[in-house]
Amino acid sequence: MPSIPPVTVALAEIARLAGVGRAAVSNWRRRYSTFPAPVGGTDTTPQFDLAEVESWLRDNGKLRREEDLLRWLWPQFDALPGRAAAGEAIAAVAEATGATEASGKLGNAQLAAVEEALKVARSRGVGATYDFLLERWSRTHVRQISTTPSPLAELMVTLAAVLGDRPRAVLDPACGTGGLLLAAGHRWSSERALELMGSDVSPVLARLARGRIGTSGLPRNVRTRIATTDTLRDDTWAAERADVVLCNPPYNARDWGHEELATDTRWTFGLPPRTESELAWVQHALAGLADGGTAVLLLPPGVAKRRAGRRIRAGLLRTGALRAVIALPAGSAPPHAVGLHLWLLRKPAADAHPLKTLLLVDAAETEEGTGTKDGRDPVDWDALTHSLPAVVRAHEAGESRDVSPVRSAAVPVVGLLDEQVDLTPARHVPAVRGSAARRARRSWEEFSSALSRLAEVSSALAALRELEEAGVQPPTTSIDELLRAGALELHGGQTLPRDAVHQGPRPRGAVPVLTVNDLIRRTEPTGWLGPHQVTAFEEHITLTAPLDVVVVGASQVFDAWVEQTAPTALVPQILALRPDPGLLDPWFLAGCLRSPGNARQAGSHSTHASRVDVRRLRVPRLSLAEQRRYGEAFRRIVELERMLQQANGLGRELTGALSDALAEGRLR
Q1: Residue 104 confidence (pLDDT) above 80
Q2: 3-state secondary structure 118-171
Q3: What start and end residues bound the annotated signal peptide (predicted)?
Q4: 567: cis peptide before it, omega within 30°?
Q5: pLDDT given for residue 206 in this prediction
């Protein structure tokens, strides 16, 4: 039997297994000569033998395996060769328990991982074990696998229930790992026998979906059938009719079957152009519905306005098939930089009367739904799940009263049937009247508060006294010497995958990406990473921690400051110094590094007038008590600088808000 290669883990995974931060693991490597040596990887991303790591943690009293068996299980699957191999092994965990039928053979390494998972499942439960492995697998391969977040899946099911509840059959023709079908099963399985039908072109995803639903604990009255097929070209469920279709289809596909499907009977509203694959999925969903059935699809915003799709959109409006378009906040689902749309559709019955209005809801820019109060999620799903069904229910009932804090409008269909047929909610939903007056009142309060804080800091700095004699200059030390003494850690910025960094407005919970160009333009970071990207690229991201000293190594914009908004992702030429708080005060360190003397050093030690040798910068050698005294003064200087900038910005906002409120006639 071929030998199974050893399982390896990176520093971030060791930190996760031990329940500590990466900095602690770096300290262990530096301070303990017995720490395991790397067995692979590179200097910046070393790999370690998992068995050696486990032994070292146990011998040094740092082992937490007994506390979290699931956490220790994942490296067994992550070490398998490739995304598909790990996915097959995870699916086999469900198959081995009898939750779904077995399919496919596994290699020795896969079988070993499955055996470990079954051991854990005996104590933690099959469902919890399977969900953990699937979640980690999805996060690890977030660039290749697009999933529907559970809160969004639940919202889509809730909206479908508003248009038509108590279904007998639910279909997802592009089911992925089965999130939408699972949400449907949880909502409707208690009411009657329920059929869940799904398809996916990927055999691995189809197996994972079967396992996910099979281990979820749904009652026996739920029958699940998942097919592996290219749905648009070869529809397994062509002879079936569903009461509800839920779908998050692939976006921007070109090879979806445009030519060979030119005469397909599903194109009731016209053959979708080659560039409009999403409208092919819309018509496919309607074709799979029983009369009066409901479909909810998650689509990119371009589908609502691209000129190539205007005839199909017009047909959907004229027949009343399209009931509502809802714009969601950015960050609701991948791609996180884009505010996606939900399309709510109903297959018209033979005797149905066309709708006179289309409901358009703009939840993308309103306060309702754009982030939880604690900032952990860029979308406030509780708010959206409460408000969006209410506004849809009111529209279906023919009520015109304002039932929701989100912006919405029932727009006459005849007014939408122009040359563009643009169904983008933001274009048709009016702004909330009186918002400028509220903004002006809020701006006054913020401006007054900023002036009060500015006066306090100014008074404190004005009390600083000039020394009558300069005295003897204290000795200095270099950053390099501090690093070698263990008083500092240096974490250099890393190049991020180009397609991982999003641009545009940053939703709550996202991690900003600071670049040299941002500093040159004197702007806030324009790029950001969603929570899933941060996890997926953890080994290739340098994230700041609170009280790190961030140093810009580009001489053109050389600077240093104490990090107060962590985490921030850093790129090359920007680095983080992490001082030992028992040896160095971060405010003292940052204040000394950004002094004029070091600025001159930055210019003289730069390479090609562009880079700074940060290791050669110097700071005075003072006691910790003296450092803190100077550090407090440096902190107040930084605070004064920030407040002056803030007051300037608030002043501009205030004048703009006042002008808008006067123009609205809300002030006099």
Answers
A1: no
A2: HHHHHHHCHHHHHHHHHHHHHHHCCCCCCCCCHHHHHHHHHHHHHHCCCCCEEE
A3: none
A4: yes
A5: 96
- How big, in percent rounded to 5, are the helix, strand and coil portions of the chain? 45, 15, 40
Closest CA to 479 of 563, 363, 605, 361: 605
Longest CA span, the chain? 96
Q: How confident is the model at residue 144 (pLDDT cuts 50, 70, 90)?
A: confident
Q: How far is residue 467's CA from residue 460's CA, in Å, rounded to a whole number?
A: 17
Q: Does residue 143 contact residue 500 with C-beta atoms inside 8 Å?
A: yes
pLDDT for residue 374 is more than 90: no
Interval 415-454: pLDDT, tens: 999 999 999 999 998 765 555 556 666 666 776 776 777 6
pLDDT tens column, 218-254: 999 999 999 999 999 999 999 999 999 999 999 988 8
CA distance 430 to 437: 16
User: Going from the N-terminus, what domains does the chain have, and what CATH number goes with each?
Assistant: 8-140 (no CATH), 150-428 (3.40.50.150), 475-621 (3.90.220.20)
Read off the tokens for 571: 């790129």
202 to 133, 316, 442, 477: CA distances (angstroms): 18, 30, 52, 59
| Residue type (1 letter), 393 | R
CA dihedral sign, ordered 594, 597, 600, 601: negative
DSSP of 453-464, one letter per residue?
HHHHHHHHHHT-
Residue 266 three-state SS: coil
pLDDT tens, position by position, 333-342 = 888 778 899 9
User: For residue 85, what are the contacts with CB-CB under 8 A and spacing of at least 6?
Assistant: 107, 109, 110
